[in-house]
Amino acid sequence: MMALTETSRLLDEGARLRPERSQVRETAGMRVTRRRGEDSAGGYRRAGLWLATLLAFAVALQGGVAVAAGRPSLASWSYLVEKLIADGVPRATVVRSFSDPRVPAFDGLPFALEPREPQSRYRQFLEPGSLARARRCRDRWWPEISRAGRSTNVSPEVIAAILHVETGCGGYTGNSVVLYRLARLAMAAEPANLARNVASHQRSNRDLSRREVARKTAARARYLEDNFYPEVRATFTMSSQLGIDPLAIRGSVAGAFGWPQFLPASYVRFGRDGNANARVSLFEPPDAMHSVAAYLAGHGWRPGLSHAARRRVIWHYNRSDAYIDTVLALAARLHRQP
Question: Is 68 part of any domain?
């Protein structure tokens, strides 16, 4: 949805976000071994000029609306603020949100070039104690889970497995300000932040040329921005639809929320009113269950899918092989006989 679970959820290594929400673990490019003598003095000068240009552009941004408003915290977000305003989000709403004390000043986003997630991260969900809790959740909510499954032709056991892996059946949904968490990721390509990451990765990746490191860093920054800027925009859309303060939406440190840990764009597209109370809340079990079912159906789940096809559907929820393996293994253990 990435349901940046991340998760899907794309994760920022420097911010210690949950890898399963990173919804995205793709590399920024092929690894290239640096040839002896490749970094000439001229190459260093060019790299230095490139970084200086980025930093100068970042300084120029500070002359925008944010600084004019005389708010240092808002000024630090000027790259994103200007983009949101240009994209049609009401200026007053954006300025108020990024001036609020609940949104700290942007102090940089260190990010990894090639994030990795260990298989061991999800091993706990198949241990006896965790399985017992998952079965209790399945049994307690089985009428609603099975109804969501029947209405979409999605496996109810997979719905139950996702809700258990994501939040322990609603037991831990997070208390972070979703807008702030997503906004940090959307700032990956902000010029000063990009320049800092380029310099950092050039120091730590001595087997690559400086130019190649700069290219990979820029590609990774664009990837993060391309995936998370729409989520920031969707947060404002969602808050407008619900008539709530965009900063009132709370969730994980990866910017996902509710029982199924949806990102805002997934809520806007797949949120369902499972209990027919004229609102969609992913903190209400029926809505969460029907929304997960709608998400999976919307990405191609149907009866009779092969194992490989099921994996491809769940990949949209969380682009992690370890996550997909765990959900399908847990679903098999949660299967109920008719």
Answer: yes
Q: Which residues contact 222 (CB under 8 A, 6 or more apart)?
A: 188, 189
Alpha carbons 220 and 153: distance in angstroms, whole number: 37
Q: Is residue 256 part of a domain?
A: yes
The residues of the chain scoring below 70 in pLDDT are: 1-70, 337-338
Total structural domains within the chain: 1
* In a domain? residue 89: yes
Residues in the chain: 338
pTM for this predicted structure: 0.80
Residue 188 token pair: 């990956």
3-state helix, strand, coil in the chain (%, to 5): 60, 5, 40
Residue 20 lies in a domain: no
Domain of 223 in residue numbering reads as 36-333
Terminal Cα distance for the chain, rounded: 31
Average pLDDT over the chain reads 84
33-to-5, 21, 29, 187, 200 alpha-carbon distances in Å: 34, 31, 13, 29, 18
Query: Is residue 236 a contact partner of residue 84, using CB atoms and an 8 Å limit?
Result: yes
